[in-house]
Design brief:
- By secondary structure, the protein is of the alpha/beta class.
- It has a single domain, classed as STAS domain (Transcription Regulator spoIIAA, 2-Layer Sandwich).
- Helix content is about 45%, strand content about 25%.
- It contains 4 helices and 4 strands, in the order αββαβαβα.
- A 4-stranded mixed beta sheet has the order 1-2-3-4, with helices on one face.
- The radius of gyration is 15 Å and the shape is globular.
Length: about 110
């Protein structure tokens, strides 16, 4: 079903269509700059992107995620970010609301262990 893929749907959506989440690779530091929103509609793609960038980056080099361009992150996606921390992912540019959400999720995940 090609029309379900955002790249296939974009032409039908008109010239002003933009994806909810955009990821830009950064070289120095190695990682991603994320812009937009992470929610149920793109959570799986976000997790796959995060897994790919952590696998492709040398083990001793941290992966830096610049979150300053995110306007929304749902709870499950925040949990994905928290779980990425032990794999050498460093989060930068967190807005206060996102930082608080990450703290709450981190605490909730610690309670589960």
């Amino acid at each position: 079903m090609m029309s379900a893929h955002p790249a296939a749907a974009a032409p039908a959506c008109g010239p002003r269509w933009t994806p909810l989440l955009r990821a830009h690779r950064t070289a120095d530091p190695a990682g991603l700059r994320l812009v937009g929103q992470v929610d149920r509609s793109n959570r799986d793609a976000f997790a796959a992107l995060l897994a790919a960038v952590t696998e492709e980056t040398p083990a001793r080099q941290p992966v830096v995620l610049d979150l300053s361009g995110l306007s929304f992150v749902d709870v499950r996606s925040a949990a994905t970010l928290v779980r990425a921390g032990p794999r050498g992912v460093r989060l930068v540019g967190c807005r206060p609301g996102l930082a608080r959400l990450l703290e709450l999720v981190r605490g909730g995940l610690a309670d589960e262990d």
